Amino acid sequence: MTSLLVIIVLVLLAIALWQLTKIFDLTQVGSTSDNTEIATDKDNNIQGYLMFGFLAFIYIFTIYGLIKWGPLVLHTPASAHGGQVDNLMNITWILIFIVQAITQVLVHYFAFKYRGKEGQKALFFADNNKLEAVWSIIPAVVLAGLILYGLYAWTNIMFVDEDEDTVVIELYAQQFNWKARYSGEDNVLGKANVRYIEGVNTVGIDLADSYSQDDIVVTELHIPKGKKILFKMRSQDVLHSAYMPHFRAQMNCVPGMVTQFAFEPIYTTAEYRELPFMVEKVANINALRAKKSEALVAKGEPALDPYTFDYLLLCNKICGASHYNMQMKIIVDTPEDYQAWLKDKATVVNEVKASLAAPAATGDAKSIDSSSAKKDDVAVMAAK
Ligand SMILES: [Cu+2]
Fold this sequence. Notes:
Elements: H1 2-27, H2 41-69, H3 82-113, H4 129-158, E1 167-174, E2 177-182, E3 216-218, E4 221-224, E5 229-235, E6 240-244, E7 249-253, E8 259-263, H5 269-274, H6 276-298, E9 311-315, E10 327-333, H7 335-343, H8 348-357, H9 365-369, H10 372-383
Parallel strand pairs: 1-5, 4-10
Antiparallel strand pairs: 1-2, 2-3, 5-8, 6-7, 6-9, 9-10
The structure holds copper (II) ion.
The site of copper (II) ion has 7 residues, from loops.
Family: Belongs to the cytochrome c oxidase subunit 2 family.
Protein name: Cytochrome c oxidase subunit 2
Transmembrane segments: 47-67, 88-112, 132-152
């Protein structure tokens, strides 16, 4: 309602302004000032110099942006393939900068040089095959090179050797959180379907499948350093996108299908925190937080906690109201720490059994209890 009123007020203001300019025009009738709508040499000169002004604005703003926001880039990639992505990105940036630097100068300079002059008539110029060939072939070759290099990098990154020793983990997306399913001892994820979601079986594992028996579901992702992780992505509801910026990894999570992405982490969380650029970044963030805390404490509010770096899995598709907060912490451990962390995690099968054994203990127990199908599943499991 408020926005409708604001829009009405703005429209009325615009109409009032338009009417005022008409009144102003009428008051000028008969005055000696030049009110023809044909540009004079003075107008053309002003426009010509404004072109240079705009050119200066573009470059000053670009340099300002690079200095002010340049340090905010992600910096060192934390995955083995990350360097390739960064390389491709940097080459693209450099090309864009060179091309834009040349073309913008030419566009603005020619607009100035050939500005209108009293009595001067524009030359009619139909075409020039040589010129057109030059400005078609050069971009075509450069773009083809860039695309071929991109395709080469993409196939390199996306290729997963079937025989390679990978850790298989499922990333399960739903509005608005992530869950990770570990494939357990057999390194094979059991079958899953949204129809099996019930009670503590939050990602819809088929409990009757033999591969499901050792599957583990967690809400904090731990992965070992130096080992290729094969992520299998699923979504429960809408399109999400699993985005792990520090690892230069992103893949859509599509309802009804399984997508995948594999990478090898090369720094543990502890090692990445110690990298000089990260130490500096965290110090800067904490300096800002300390400043903000002072203001908060002065107002009698609690101070902010100091920031420590963690890798994150974010959702990179606008999937609903709480999309902005759809994230999961990723911890890269040493292989030993990873094994130790994984060792005592309960399997989903055992969690389901426990929840069925103590129906009063959990809030979800009632719905599980009422499902005879689920009891059959557990019976199948028990028989194995
Ligand atoms: Cu999402």
